[in-house]
Design brief:
Layout (H helix, E strand, L loop, with lengths): L7 H10 L8 H20 L1 H25 L31 E7 L4 H16 L4 E6 H4 L3 H8 L4 E9 L3 E2 L4 H9 L11 E8 L8 H12 L3 E2 L4 E4 L4 H20 L18 E5 L25 E10 L9 E7 L12 E4 L5 H11 L6 E5 L19 E2 H7 L9 H8 L5 H11 L4 H10 L4 H7 L7 H8 L6 E4 L10 E7 L2 E3 L5 E3 L1 H8 L11 E7 L13 E4 L6 H15 L7 E7 L9 H10 L4 E6 L9 H7 L1 H9 L3 E6 L4 H16 L4 H13 L3 E5 L1
Parallel strand pairs: 1-2, 1-3, 3-5, 5-6, 5-7, 19-20, 19-22, 20-21, 22-23
Antiparallel strand pairs: 3-4, 8-12, 9-10, 9-18, 10-15, 11-14, 11-18, 12-13, 16-17
Helix pairs in contact: 1-2, 1-3, 10-11, 12-13, 12-16, 20-22, 22-23
């Protein structure tokens, strides 16, 4: 390097590049060369450090130059100056670190948190059994950013377990949807997973037609693509005791894992007892109370979801049944103007409503604590180390009344793990022993009858064991699960109601086997919600939108057949609003028929006047209504379908889309059988071909169901 005057930068640059240092000033030459020699010996040994130092100095000087330039009037320029970003050295991820230990990945796809809880429980026990193995619990949605990364990472896995819940019409959960679509619809890959050993545990309900479909499909594809199944696919049934199903599957897994994870010389496995989960709790005095998070004007996020909902005011609420009806159905409108929250026709809205005051009061009585106790939950110890990976996420600091109102699920039947947590904090030995028995294998039948079949709520169980007084950290971690959002098919279209989300909700009011009257958390809240059209002190609730594939055909001229009794009408009201907007803008529409059902036209014929207007406008071509309580025999939508069998077959033959919305356990099954019969009789097919025809309609996206 040669220059008329050598700066410190020149000296640093030359040393890093390994060039000779030439100094033009003889008087300072020896001093420079001495410093250069010493610096050179230090920096060459750690060249990466030197590069960081030199880059940092360059960034600092750049910032100074920028500041001087802006103060000298440069800011008046029309060019935008981008802020310089600091140099970030990204450490290698845990996946990239090869420490010689065997690795097991446990994936979960969950809607209510149960699958995640099982995944974490398996991980906790496995860590205790196989201390030399590294276990990782992963949300399927967080595993990869795109399809290519899913493939790249999955083929590096040696042992993996999948906990997959199925909901709705055989659909994956929200956080597993992207993985499921890639894994089931992707290109042919051959036997690319020969190095993978795996197990699948499904979570479903036998009352639904597509029981554990997601788990079964993933298990089949894994085998097809060369993976080695370690244990039979677990079929958890939430209609009975899904915890027992998980326990049986897990016990069958350990011998298989022993063969691949245990080594000679490993210590014998000691019996594992899961610790009762408990948060660290901080109690705050009233003077120290933190301000509760206010979601009224948004949540600081541009994307709204279950973790980041938007608190929307209730704009309109009205009763849809007439006074003659002994039941109730609410039409409710959430105001989303200016929120940034958007939806499409056919989407679902998740609503996080509060528990009823009477429910909260009962919980406070059973816990025997002051409702004004202000506290915060912590998932780490005071030294910052995590307590357990199995702890559910905490919620913001608040008083006990607020916590019970917003976050605790108090009316569902308690899981066996909750009974064990209660037993650990029960002062009466007889009561504690009874709780432990109900949670034990020996008490399986008694638990099934006394808790599951009787549909006893958590509060009812706690009332039976009055000496059970769990502390706050245990109650919210291990006894009361989180209050879950309730999902509703949106009954409006943004083409008509851009700033409103409409919900059509039937009141849940049922007598349980124990004699308790069960009042649905969200439906009861909606029925009594105060709208702002009636009071400035209106009700509000955190909401978010979940996308759906229940959409109108992209070609408006394609015929559509809609089947939705009761509140199953909800998404079709949105469909018809959209078609009305298209008619008013001059768009040509294809034929449409709606099969609707209710008990009596004088009591529960919801949206009757609107449906007549849709007919008059041409948005709806034909309306067929089944009244199940008016004649001598009960008549349902499937009977109306059979009356119109030839018309339905003609529309299907012309490319019609078939939509079904409502009860999955009864109505949807009956409608499916009717479609099968219509195909068989009108299409002159045998039973096998008719079923294949209906299945092909589903596979091609022309037979869509929004069922619950």
């Amino acid at each position: 390097m040669s220059s008329s005057s050598s700066s410190p930068f020149d000296l640093m640059s030359a040393i890093i590049k390994g060039e000779p240092v030439v100094v033009s000033d003889p008087a300072n030459a020896s001093a420079y060369e001495s410093v250069a020699a010493e610096l050179s010996s230090i920096l060459i040994e750690n060249r990466q450090f030197a590069m960081i130092i030199s880059t940092s100095i360059a960034v600092l000087i750049g910032c100074i130059v920028m500041l001087v330039w802006r103060r000298s009037g440069g800011s008046g320029s029309s060019k935008r100056v981008e802020t310089l970003k600091p140099l970030v050295i990204k450490p290698p991820s845990e996946d990239e670190v090869d420490d010689g230990r065997k690795k097991v990945t446990i994936f979960f796809g969950t809607q209510t948190g149960t699958a995640e809880g099982f995944a974490k429980a398996l991980g906790e026990e496995a860590k205790a059994r196989y201390e030399k193995t590294r276990f990782k619990i992963v949300d399927l949605d967080d595993y990869a950013a795109d399809d290519d990364e899913y493939e790249e990472k999955l083929k590096k896995e040696d042992v993996a377990f999948f906990f997959l819940a199925t909901y709705g019409d055989g659909e994956p959960t929200d956080n597993a949807a992207r993985f499921y679509k890639w894994f089931t619809e992707g290109e042919e890959r051959g036997e690319w997973l020969k190095n993978l050993k795996y197990g699948v545990f499904g979570l479903g309900n036998r009352q639904y037609e597509h029981f554990n479909k997601v788990a079964k499909v993933v298990d089949d594809i894994l085998v097809e693509q060369g993976a080695q199944r370690l244990v039979h696919v677990g079929l958890g049934d939430d209609d009975q005791c899904i915890e027992d199903d998980f326990t049986a599957w897990r016990e069958a897994l350990w011998p298989e894992l022993d063969t691949i994870l245990r080594e000679e010389g490993d210590t014998a496995v000691t019996p594992y007892t899961a610790a009762v989960l408990e948060y660290r709790v901080s109690i705050h005095s009233s003077g120290d109370a933190l301000n509760e998070k206010n979601l009224a004007n948004g949540n600081g996020h541009t994307v709204f979801d279950a973790q980041h909902p938007y608190r929307a005011n209730v704009a309109v609420r009205r009763e849809l049944h007439t006074p003659e009806s002994d039941r109730s159905c609410t039409h409710l409108e959430f105001d989303i103007a200016g929120s940034g929250l958007t939806y499409e026709t056919g989407d679902h809205v998740g609503v996080l409503s509060d528990n009823l005051n009477e429910t909260v009061e009962e919980a406070l009585r059973l816990l025997d604590m002051s409702p004004d106790t202000y506290f915060s939950l912590h998932s780490d110890k005071e030294d910052g180390t995590p307590i357990s990976s199995s702890l559910p996420p905490t919620f913001p600091p608040c008083n006990l009344r607020t916590a019970l109102t917003r976050y605790a699920c108090l009316l569902s039947s308690p899981k066996k793990s909750a009974l064990l947590a209660l037993a650990a904090h029960t002062s009466d030995p007889t009561e504690a022993e009874r709780l432990r028995h109900l949670a034990s294998p020996a008490g399986k039948d008694e638990y099934s009858k006394w808790v599951v079949e009787s549909q006893r709520s958590l509060l009812e169980v706690m009332a039976e064991f009055p000496s059970a007084k769990p502390p706050l950290g245990v109650f919210f971690a291990a006894v009361a699960p989180r209050l879950q959002p309730r999902f509703y098919s949106i009954s409006s279209s943004p083409k008509i109601a851009e700033t409103r989300i409409h919900v059509t909700c039937a009141l849940v009011y049922e007598k349980m086997p124990t004699g308790r009257i069960h009042k649905g958390v969200c439906s009861t809240w909606m029925k009594s919600a105060v709208p702002y059209e009636k009071s400035e002190k209106c009700c509000s609730a955190p909401i978010f939108v979940r996308q759906s594939n229940f959409k109108l055909p992209s070609d408006s001229k394609v015929p559509i057949i809609m089947i939705g009794p009761g509140t199953g009408l909800a998404p079709f009201r949105g469909f018809l609003q959209e078609r009305l907007a298209l008619v008013e803008s001059g768009v040509e529409l294809g034929p449409s028929v709606l099969f609707f059902g209710c008990r009596n036209r004088r009591m529960d014929f919801i949206y009757e006047e609107e449906l007549q207007r849709f007919l008059e406008s041409g948005a709806l071509l034909e309306l067929s209504v089944a009244f199940s309580r008016e004649g001598p025999t009960k008549e349902y939508v499937q009977h109306k379908m059979m009356d119109k069998a030839s018309d339905i077959w003609k529309m299907i033959s012309e490319g019609a889309y078939v939509y079904v919305c409502g009860d999955a356990k009864g109505m949807a099954r009956d409608v499916h059988r009717s479609l099968h019969t219509i195909a068989q009789e009108q299409g002159s097919m045998d039973s096998t071909k008719a079923e294949s025809f209906v299945k092909n309609l589903q596979m091609s996206g022309r037979y869509l169901r929004d069922v619950w």
